[in-house]
Design goal:
By secondary structure, the protein is an alpha/beta fold. It folds into 2 domains: about 130 residues, Aldehyde Oxidoreductase, domain 3 (Alpha-Beta Complex), CATH 3.90.1170; about 150 residues, TIM Barrel. The chain is about 45% helix and about 20% strand. It contains 11 helices and 12 strands. It has a 6-stranded parallel β-sheet with strand order 6-11-10-9-8-7. The chain has a 4-stranded antiparallel β-sheet with strand order 3-5-1-12, covered by helices on one side. Helix 6 packs across helix 7 and helix 8 runs parallel beside helix 9. About 35% of the residues are buried.
Length: about 280
C-alpha cells in the first residue's frame, strides 16, 4: 500500500519538522555532532504489529538531508515480530539526529492504527463485513491516519465534509424530518455525490426506505445487535448498511455477525495505542 502522493505528504512533513526545529534549529545536535560525522543506525520494532510509515520516514530524512540513505528491510503492511529491524539509516549524523523524532512519532502512531485495524478486519472477515474509519482523527494527521487504516486492511469513510453527504441527527432536526433533509440534499447535489443517512430507530429506517429517491447508504447508529439484524432484514440489500456507535475491537465480531456491510469505528484513530519503535545507532 503506497503512501499518499509526495505533493500531499511533503508539506505535512515539512510542517512537522519546522515545529520541531523551532526558531533556532537543532541546537543540541549542532553543538555535539561534528559536521561531516557519519553514522549508521537501525529502526527496530520493540512490539509486534503491522508496519506503517517506513516510506514516510524515508521522506522525512530526505527533507532534512537528501544524503541520508534509508534501506528498508520490510514494507508498509507487513506483520512483524517484536525485535525486528525494519530499516537501516546511514549518512550524516546531524541529519539523522534531527529527523529521528518526527520519523519515530509518525511510524509509531501509524503502525498502532494499522495494527488495530488489522485486528478488527480479522474479526469481521468471517462475516464478509468491511471495517472503516471515521473523521475522528488527530487534527493535521487525517490523511496519514486514514492511509494507516488502509495499510491495516480497512477502508476509508469520507475524508471531510466535501466528498460525501452524511445526514446526521442534527441535520434531521434542522430540516424537520428525514424526508425533508434528503429532499434538500438531492435538490442541491450533483449526480456523482453519494448520500448516507444516519438513523437511530427502525421507525426512522422505515421512513428512509419509503422514499422514492433516497440514500445510497444508511448508518445504523448505536443499535444493539438484535436491532441491527432487524434493520439489515428491512433494508434487504437496497442500501449499503453501516453500523457505528459504541463499537470497539471487543465487539466487532458480534456486530459483524448481524450481516451489516460495513462497521465504522472512531476507535481506530482516536484510541489506537502507539507502537514502540526505536532508532538505535549501530556505528559512527
Amino acid at each position: 500500500m503506497s503512501m499518499p502522493h509526495a505533493l500531499i505528504v511533503d508539506p505535512l512533513l515539512e510542517g512537522f519538522l519546522r515545529e520541531d526545529l523551532g526558531r533556532a534549529g537543532d541546537i543540541t545536535t549542532d553543538a555535539i555532532a561534528p559536521d561531516g560525522l557519519t553514522a549508521r543506525c537501525a529502526f527496530t520494532f520493540r512490539q509486534a504489529g503491522v508496519v506503517c510509515g517506513l516510506e514516510l520516514a524515508r521522506r522525512v530524512f530526505a527533507l532534512v538531508d537528501p544524503t541520508v540513505q534509508v534501506t528498508l528491510h520490510a514494507k508498509d503492511g507487513d506483520t512483524i515480530a517484536a525485535g525486528t529491524v525494519v530499516a537501516e539509516v546511514s549518512g550524516p549524523a546531524r541529519g539523522i539526529l534531527t529527523g529521528e523524532r518526527v520519523a519515530l512519532n509518525l511510524m509509531g502512531r501509524l503502525s498502532g492504527i494499522a495494527t488495530l485495524t488489522r485486528h478488527c478486519v480479522d474479526q469481521a472477515a468471517p462475516h464478509g463485513t468491511r471495517i472503516a474509519c471515521t473523521r475522528k482523527t488527530t487534527p493535521g494527521l487525517r490523511i496519514l491516519e486514514k492511509w494507516a487504516v488502509r495499510v491495516g486492511g480497512g477502508t476509508n469513510h469520507r475524508f471531510g465534509l466535501d466528498d460525501g453527504v452524511l445526514i446526521k441527527d442534527n441535520h434531521i432536526g434542522v430540516a424537520g424530518s428525514i424526508t425533508e433533509a434528503v429532499r434538500r440534499v438531492r435538490d442541491r447535489l450533483g449526480h456523482m455525490v453519494k448520500v448516507e443517512v444516519e438513523v437511530d430507530t427502525l421507525e426512522q429506517l422505515a421512513e428512509l426506505l419509503a422514499l422514492e429517491t433516497g440514500a445510497d447508504a444508511v448508518l445504523l447508529d448505536n443499535m444493539p445487535p438484535p436491532v441491527l439484524r432487524q434493520a439489515v432484514a428491512m433494508v434487504a440489500g437496497r442500501l449499503t448498511t453501516e453500523a457505528s456507535g459504541g463499537i470497539t475491537p471487543d465487539n466487532v465480531n458480534e456486530v459483524a455477525a448481524t450481516g451489516v456491510d460495513l462497521i465504522s469505528l472512531g476507535f481506530l484513530t482516536h484510541s489506537a495505542k502507539t507502537l514502540d519503535v526505536g532508532l538505535d545507532f549501530t556505528s559512527l
